[in-house]
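[scheduler] slot 2 assigned
[scheduler] job type: sequence-to-structure, two independent chains
[scheduler] chain ordering preserved from manifest
[runner] begin chain α
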Amino acid sequence: MPDFRTVTETFSVAPQIAPDDLAKAARLGFVKVINNRPDDEAPDQPSSAVMAAAARAAGLEYAYIPFRGLPGPDLVEAMTDAVEAADGPVLAFCRSGTRSITIWSLGQAQAGARSRQELIGLGAAAGYDLSGPLG
């Protein structure tokens, strides 16, 4: 059973998901999946190409925005653009979900869309501590 964690009505995160989880994501109303996990980070992880094909088969849009550590401004902008371009709810994933919620939160903070405290609260409600990245 995938661990989809709601952050807002239009944005959720998850630890690593399997290709089969994308059909469930589509049934739940997601329209786009964003993969923030670099290929070959772990031997058992599905590649971006496999995830992209599964997303397309499920009728989902797919974006690949991989990174390790804290993302730079170009990646934050790419993530923000990918989320904003979606015509409905977005599910982002990485190994634990931390990178996905962090990059989204940095974009929200930089755009002035949400306060630091609100983002920390949203992260905590989803099971993530954002006090460091947003410090």
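[runner] end chain α
[runner] begin chain β
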Amino acid sequence: MKPLSRTAAITKENLKTAFWQLYKQKGHGHVTVKDVTALAGYHRGVFYDYFANTEELLTEIEADLLGELEIISAAIDLHTDIPAPLQQQISGTYEQRSEYIYTLLSPQGDPDFAAHFKRAVKEMLRRKLSLPDTESQRFDIAAEFIISGMIGGFSSWYPRRSEMPAEELLPLLYSLQRRDALTVLSQTIPPAEPDAEQI
């Protein structure tokens, strides 16, 4: 895909910013192309140079967000404490993107985003714990417990974030996850059945 010119990149970002301002106020499914272009100061035709519709624009915002979370997760070792420089980097990303995460996971947000978020975290957990990509009810239950706890903790923190900086939230959630949940998760794959020839 050909990279956008500087002017085109700015225009596209302006459209995304206008969309997001409206999305926070109106909620999922209530923002129109006309709303976005009016707020951004463009003709409606400009919008269609970049996006087919507002759902495509939202999908791009969500993909950008999940991509950033993937970069963060790649740097984390689930078996050790997070080093201070990495904690600062992750906390900075949380500070910048927390509004997006909170809004998208809220009742007025995209009902599909939570499923995409959970799927991405589950895949990250599989990779980090070197678990095979097989169906396992134990894995699904343990992963759902961890992820729901993360979402619940984050959603509880965000409205009162002035009382606790993000750099304190991350170690708290991380330490809670690491106690027993990760141990159970790493044991979710049942032992292999003995080979018939070995019996």
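[runner] end chain β
[qc] chain β: DSSP finds nine helices and no strands in the chain.
[scheduler] slot 2 released
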